[in-house]
Amino acid sequence: MIRSITKQKPFEEVTGLLGEMERVFIIGCGTCTTMAHTGGQAEVLAMKQKLVEARKVITGFMIIPVACDNLTDEALQGNQPAMREAQALLIMTCAFGVQTISRFLDIPVIPALDTLFIGKESGLGLYQEICVQCGECILGETGGICPVTSCHKGLVNGPCGGTNNGKCEIDRNKDCAWTLIYERLKKQGRLSVMRKFQAAKNYHVEPKPGKILLEL
Fold it and tell me: Which of 48, 80, 110, 207 has minimal Cβ neighbours within 10 Å of its Cβ?
């Protein structure tokens, strides 16, 4: 299961972003931030209490089922009156959710969270970053293991000199990505693939912000 992983901004940063806007409506998310304990009902209620103590007026709050899909607009409709009373919407979702909600309302949106990465659940409560959308996928030459995300240094032509006994020099508890790639290709009888030189990553493959047009 793919999740956006987030962390809460320091409360001082949140109040700094709100500035003199006193009336606030809070929006949490029932999926990713609920799972991450950064924007579910408990966190929204805790934020509400802290804002009240900071002399803010809370016009209302809601936990939107999914903050970043095509039903976001419909989900927001029932709380429009309370939102319209607010000077700002404090959004406790990932950045994708913040941007999605902002498209449907002309009220200032203030993110209460920082989005860290897109992760895949690899264990109970444990997420592993799987893709940075670089636009130059080399998984075919690396046994299906991405060195851009799996290697701390993002090396695309084999391990650095710091790897030791198959472990990463930056995190000794982490397997070296290129050791994993070597073992995978060896098992597949494809070690010759590692002889191919990979050019330095071109981070301008898709100008940022990216835009994709699919022919339907």
Answer: 207
pTM of the model: 0.66
Among 34, 38, 88, residue whose Cα is nearest residue 60: 88
Phi, then psi, of 192 in degrees rounded to 5: -60, -25
Other beta carbons within 10 angstroms of residue 189's beta carbon come to 7
Facing residues of 29 across strands?
Answer: 64
Count Cβ atoms below 10 Å from residue 17 Cβ, excluding itself.
15
Q: Which of 89, 92, 82 is nearest to 105 (CA)?
A: 89
Helix (H, G, I), strand (E, B) or coil at 38: coil
The CATH number of 2-117 is 3.40.50.2300
Q: How far from the centroid of its chain's Cα atoms is residue 174's Cα?
A: 21
Q: How far apart are CA 6 and CA 92, in angstroms?
A: 9
Q: Return the closest-CA partner of residue 54 out of 86, 26, 27, 22.
A: 22
Domain with CATH 3.40.50.2300 in the chain: 2-117
Q: What angle do CA 125, 126, 128 make, to 5 degrees?
A: 145
The radius of gyration of the chain's CA atoms, rounded to the nearest angstrom, is: 22
